[in-house]
Design brief:
Blueprint: H1 2-36, H2 41-54, H3 56-59, H4 64-78, H5 83-99, H6 106-121, H7 131-142, H8 147-160, H9 184-203
The structure holds magnesium ion.
């Protein structure tokens, strides 16, 4: 029972903080998207996290891998744009890897999920997408950098997309004019990562 409660508090808490950080930054994310896209990233992400929050009481009592998978499916259906399928793939694949047979630990599950995102978006490192946050975050996780280190790396990685030229999605139509703007997907990914790290740090016993 204690395990069930701990799991429910963890999943419910993660849903709450992700919803909060996106709500608090939705205008900023849409502003970033207006510069190199169609200006809807904040609105789309907020709609997705609200859809997840609406399912909170059910999701929180699922085993973590199943919850991740279902949150991913909800994001695919509710976010729209490029971000829905990419974030959806990330969570669905992480959940499936963790649920699968064998000794797949979290870093390995995350690695396979990020590869699935890259295939889904036909994108690579340096293309100015959320992958430019996910790859460095994964490297920090593998390096066992600690939660604060992972959060810092996520923020730093999102800032570095400022100097990149977009190679995928709508922003790529701008060519060189996409340089000099932070990628909105990378920014939302960094905000979510940092919020999750802060939350997990608060949960861990001192
Ligand atoms: Mg957009």
């Amino acid at each position: 029972m204690l395990v069930v409660l701990a799991n429910a508090a963890l999943i419910g808490g993660l849903i709450d903080i992700c919803r909060e950080v996106i709500a608090a930054n939705a205008d900023h994310l849409s502003e970033l998207d207006r510069a190199i896209g169609d200006g809807d990233h904040g609105t789309n992400m907020r709609r997705g996290l609200e859809a997840v929050y609406a399912e909170r009481s059910r999701l929180a009592y699922l085993p973590l891998p199943k919850a991740l998978e279902e949150i991913g499916l909800t994001l695919v259906m509710s976010v729209g744009g490029a971000a829905g399928p990419l974030y959806g793939t990330l969570l669905i694949e992480t959940g499936r890897q963790l649920a699968g047979s064998g000794d797949v630990d979290f870093p390995r599950a995350l690695e396979r999920a990020i590869d699935a995102v890259a295939r889904r978006g036909r994108a690579s490192a340096g293309d100015k997408t959320l992958l430019d946050v996910l790859y460095p975050v994964h490297a920090e996780v593998v390096r066992r950098a600690g939660l604060a280190g992972v959060a810092e790396q996520a923020e730093r990685a999102a800032s570095l997309t400022f100097g990149m030229k977009a190679m995928r999605g709508r922003a790529s139509f701008l060519g060189d004019r996409s340089i000099g703007h932070i990628d909105p997907g990378a920014k939302s990914c960094a905000l979510l990562t940092a919020a999750i790290c802060r939350f997990l740090e608060e949960q861990s016993p001192a």
